[in-house]
Amino acid sequence: MRPTFWTRALGAAALLACGTGGALSDQAVSPLAQRLEGLLSRMTLEEKIGQLNLVPYSPTFDRGDLEKGRIGAVMAVTKPQEIADLQAAARRARHGIPVLVGLDVLHGLRTIFPVPMAEVASFDPDLAKATARQAGREAAAIGINWTFAPMADLARDPRWGRMNEGFGEDPLLGRLFTRARVAGFREAGIASTLKHFAGYGSAMGGRDYDMGTIAPADLFDSYLPPFKGGIEAGSESVMSAFLSLNGMPVSANRALLTGILREKWGYGGFVVSDWNSVGELLEHGLAKDPAEAARKALLAGIDMDMYSGFYTAHLAEEVKAGRVPEAAVTEAARRVLRSKLRMGLFERPDPDTSRTEPLPPSSEARELARRSARESAVLLRNRGGLPLPQGKRTAVVGDLGQTQRHLLGPHAAMGRWEDGVSVLEGLRRREGATVSYAQGCEIECQSDSGFAAAEQAAREADMVVAVLGEANEMSGEAASRATLTLPGRQGELLDRLVATGKPVVLVLIAGRPIELGPVVDRLQAVLMAWFPGTEGGNAVADLLFGDADPAGKLPVSWPRSVGQVPLPYDLPPTGRPHDPQNHYTYRYVDEAITPLFPFGFGLTYTEWSLSDVQLPQRKLRAGDQLAVGATLRNTGSRSGRQVVQLYIRQLHASRSRPARQLKAFQKVRLEPGQTRRVALRVPVSELGFHLDEGSHVVEAGRYQVFVGTDSKAPLAGEFEVLP
């Protein structure tokens, strides 16, 4: 029912929810605008401030504040009856304004899908849209109408725990997947939040909450495009970042929150602070007291204060003292109320209170979760170990092999571990499979007391599937890591399994790349399964036994050593390119300069050839499209899917440009021996870059084209952009 109410509200207001953040046409603005302005005209200053107050649902929560119009949004309430009670209390207030009910629905509500970065590895935005839609439907059914997702942060440093919530290191993938997730949530009838605006993924050393530094042009070219994509898709809100960016805490950064977001982009939604980030302006040293923090945040562009309570406590006095114009408070309330009207919250019925929790995953939701987990997994190595041979005895080793809980990953909303399927269970469900199990050690792996039993299980089997990696709390918020190796003594366990002489297939459960070391060359296969969600065990079994073919591609460069990070693929070239014969060159003295696995990399169970790359038009002007054609052939004996990737480099420019950038891709399924002509197109307008002040330019000159199946794609030709 929820999409129906959303659609009805949008139709009544003739909403144009695209590039201007949902701007209304002059002709059709009347119904919504008149209702909005009429409501604002009847509200007191205190009631307007109440709309800017987001509070957590807790034992000390006071429904009386709702009845007095002092709360505009509530978070972390999940029981339908309690949500209905909150909305009833809000309706008893003088103006009967419903509350936004928010929750972190990042990769599912009860049905848990792979973590967002895993889904990006599918290179299939439509899949991400479908999982967001399902998650949104489950959330809307219990009364949630607002999610603090998607995370649109560019993430180049795998030490940062929140990398798993985003899309990796590439701006194009970020833009496409952010747009898809926003669209999926909207179709389900819940509002989305683009977070964390902006630059949160640049935190120094990968340390959550630390400061960040981004060159202005890089901010526009790399970090902002995903947010722009989400705004174009109609996201109703944007969340400010915790960090201090270029010396200014973002929650008081008017240049970002007002200058770029509203004035440059014309965004019409509202901005919410992150948890207590208005309060943290005191810790940043930007405000001497709560009143100053509230004033600076509001005037910078923070419409809604999450948790600190500073707006409620101090804004009215700041207005009366003349330090904050009342018009600024009114405009912030206008943006919040406009979003509530657009969403149809005034007409939306309360949730079904006969249920006490979300329904268990449906068969359709489980199938989508299983498909998403299969599509997201990345095959990194395969020396013939996969698919697993028929009729062989398989030993599963590792605590992560028998867990259901840790496959869900961090921020699993209302997911229940008992809904899930472990890797061990998934393998044992396979008809005719003979599967034994040995823990080896717990995930933290501080003791080797179980290693001998694991080695014995390996010797008694024909194949070993080692399921190793991170616990769910080892990734996510406040889970930065200084090392990227397997936790504890898991690496030692893996070495001892390999030393038995039995073929070892490594299945990695993690939210980030893991430093594998020399053992990677002794493994029969490596499958990155990420945190695969509710149906993770079944999906991994599908892939290991060959019932499904792996087709995932890395959305982040995979380091050999933590000392290399960050090492995104799209850096500008150095003045001294790597030359192994030259001591004074771009290099490390103790490690290769290249990643272990490049961005866009991923193997399949079949073989491919890519040939006959053609550029029909080699001289282009503004308004044209670059067209690139290539012939893809499945030269192996199995059906499979491959992602053909197009990268561009501007050879000479007014500033040093990236050595290559992903500009288009296409995912193709082919049967053995089948051939398809792949057509990739890029508007010339997307070949440009930003100057420091934010203007966008496309320069005339020569450009190179690279076409392949990862970011190491070979040079395929050149073209010229004419003046």
Describe the structure.
- It is built from 20 helices and 26 strands.
- The relative contact order is 0.11.
- It has a six-stranded mixed sheet. A five-stranded parallel sheet has the order 4-3-2-1-10. A five-stranded mixed sheet has the order 18-26-25-20-21, with no helix packed on it.
- With 723 residues, it is of the alpha/beta class.
- The longest helix has 18 residues, at 171-188.
- The model is unreliable at 1-28 (pLDDT under 50).
- The chain is globular, with a radius of gyration of 26 Å.
- The N and C termini lie far apart (53 Å).
Q: Helical residue percent?
A: 25-40%
Strand percentage: 15-25%
State the major sheet.
6 strands, mixed
How many whole angstroms does the radius of gyration measure? 26 Å
Distance between the termini: 53 Å
Oligomeric state of shown chains:
single chain
Question: How are the strands ordered across the major sheet?
Answer: 11-16-15-14-12-13
What is the number of helices? 20
pLDDT < 50 stretches: 1-28
The tally of beta strands, per DSSP, is: 26
* Structural class determined from secondary elements: alpha/beta
Mean pLDDT: 95
Shape: globular
Lay out the secondary structure.
Layout: H1 2-13, H2 30-41, H3 45-50, E1 53-56, H4 63-67, E2 73-75, H5 80-91, E3 100-103, H6 116-120, H7 125-141, E4 146-147, H8 171-188, E5 193-197, H9 216-223, H10 225-232, E6 237-240, E7 244-245, E8 248-249, H11 254-264, E9 270-272, H12 290-300, E10 305-306, H13 310-320, H14 326-342, H15 363-376, E11 378-382, E12 393-397, H16 399-402, H17 423-428, E13 434-438, H18 451-459, E14 463-469, H19 490-499, E15 504-509, E16 525-528, H20 536-544, E17 608-614, E18 619-620, E19 625-634, E20 640-650, E21 661-670, E22 675-683, E23 689-690, E24 696-697, E25 701-708, E26 715-721
Helix pairs in contact: 2-14, 7-8, 7-15, 8-10, 12-13, 15-20
